[in-house]
Prior knowledge:
Layout: H1 30-37, H2 50-64, H3 75-78, E1 82-83, H4 97-107, H5 127-139, E2 144-148, H6 151-161, E3 168-172, H7 177-184, E4 190-194, H8 199-212, H9 214-217, E5 223-228, H10 240-250, E6 257-262, H11 277-280, E7 289-293, E8 303-307, H12 309-318, H13 320-323, H14 330-343, H15 346-367, H16 372-378, E9 398-401, H17 408-417, E10 420-421, E11 423-425, E12 436-440, H18 447-469, H19 478-489
Parallel strand pairs: 1-10, 3-4, 3-5, 5-6, 6-7
Antiparallel strand pairs: 2-8, 7-8, 9-12, 11-12
Bound molecules: pyridoxal-5'-phosphate.
Amino acid sequence: MATNCPSETTAILPTDTQSIESTILAPAGFLATRLKNWQPRSQPTKPLPAFYRNIEESLNQRRNSRSICTIVQNYWQTSNAVDFCSGDILSLNAGGALRAAFLDELSQFPDFTVGSGGVRLMDGNYTYLERVEHDIAAFHGAEDGIIVGSAYEANVAVWTALPRPGDVIVYDKLVHASTHEGMRRSRALQRISFEHNNIDHFRDTLVKIIETNAAINAGNSSILVAVESIYSMDGDVCPLKQFMEVAKDVTEGKGNVQFIVDEAHGVGVLGPNGSGLVCQLKLEKEVAVVVHSFGKAVGAAGAIILGSPSIKSALVNFGRSILFTTSPSFPFVAAIKAGYNLLGTVQGQTARDHIQMKARLFFNTLTSHNLWETCHAKGILHVPLAQGWEDRAFLTHIITVSTREKYILWLFVHLMAASFSVFSVPYPIVPLGQDRVRIIIHAGNTDEQIVGLVNALFTWAEEIIEIEQGTSSAEVSSVASKVNEWMRKEGLTARL
Ligand SMILES: Cc1ncc(COP(=O)(O)O)c(C=O)c1O
C-alpha cells in the first residue's frame, strides 16, 4: 500500500469454530442486548404512575414491531469484526491521523479556553471560531458560514429560520429526518414532496405550484428546494445540475426557486479536495444554502451552514436552535479544523481514491459471481446500485442490499457471524417494507475484506436458494436458526 494511505482495519474472515455465544451473542454485546430489548416488558407488580406506564406502553409498541432502538456499542467496536458501518468514511479516526492533526492544532494554541463562554450573540463568539468558519467557507467557495453543534441542528435552524410566510418548500421524498423536523416547524405556506431523484416529477411539481400560486408566479414568493448530495439510506447522488436547470426553465429566469443542499454524506468524499457535490458541479454561486456535517468523513462532530452574510444573519436572528444555545467550544472547533487540514492533503486524496477502488472491487466481485444473476433474478439479493455501476464515474461509499423482507435479519446476523459489521436499517428509518442492510465502504478497508463481504453475501444466498427450492430441510438460515435457539434458551419469545 502507498505511504500516507489510511491504516487498514483487521480482517477476521468467516470461521465455523467460534461459538456463536462467545461472538455475536456475547453477553451484553450488540446483538444480545438488542434481541433482549425486543422482549415486551411485563406489568410490574407495583403499578407505575401514569407517566412511566404510558412511556412503557409506547416503548412496548416499538418492541412488538422490533423497531426499538438500543444504545449499545456496535459489534466492530467490541470484536475484530470489520467496520462496514461507521461514519469514519475516510478512516481518519481508525488510522489515528485525525488524533495527530487535532493534537497538532491544539498545540498551536496552548492558552486556549476550553468553554465557549455563552451563546453566540453574547459571550460565545471568539476569534478562532470566526477564523475557522471563514476558512471552511472559503474551502467550499462560499461567502460565509456558521458552525453549529450538528447537522441535525443545522437543518432544523435552516428550515425554521429561512422560509418566509408565503414560500413553498419542495423536497425530495427521501430527505433526512432533521430536514423533516425543520420543515414541519417552518413558516412556509406548503410542503410538497417529489419522487426521489425524479427530474420529471420535480418539473411537474414546480409547474403545478407556479400555476396555482399567484405570489410565486409573480416572483414575489419563493420555492425552496430540499435535496441531499448523497442519500444516506440509498447511496445515490442527487442530479442537482439537472434540477437547477429545470428550476431556471420553469420560472423563466425569475430566480425564485432556491436550493438548499444537505451534503452530510458528500463532504470529504466527492468534489475537489472533498469539498462536496456543489463544488464538483461548480454551483457554489447558485446554491443558496449548503449544510456540511462534520460527523462523517471529516471525522469530528458538528456542522456548518454555508450561505451569504444575509443568510447567516437570518439564521442567528430567526434560528432559535442557534440563538438560544451555547456556541461551539474551542476543542470542538479545533477537531473540525483538524479534519479539514487533512481533507486536501495527499492522505485525504489517497483515502478518497481508496474508496473508489474498493467500491469498484465490491461491485465487480458481486456482479461477476456465478450466483449473482440467479440471486438478482429471484430477488434474494437486491443491490440497486449494482445496476450500471461500470458506467458511473464516481461510486459512493454507501451500498444497500435488500432481500425478501422476512429474510433481512437473517442476512444481517449472517454477516455479523462472518465478522462483518453492517447496519440493518428498519422501518421507520426507511419506508415500511423497505428494510435493508447498509454497507459503508471505508478508505481503510482491504481488498480481502471487500471480497470476504461479497462472498459472505453469496454463502448466505446459497443457503436461501436451497431452503426455497426445498433441497435443504432447514426452515431458516443456519445462523438465524442458532440465534433463535439462543432466544428460546434465554426465554425470549421473539424469533428472527
Ligand atoms: C442527510 C443527513 N443530514 C443530516 C444528518 C445529521 O447529521 P449530524 O450527525 O451531524 O447531526 C444526517 C445523519 O446521519 C444525515 O444523514
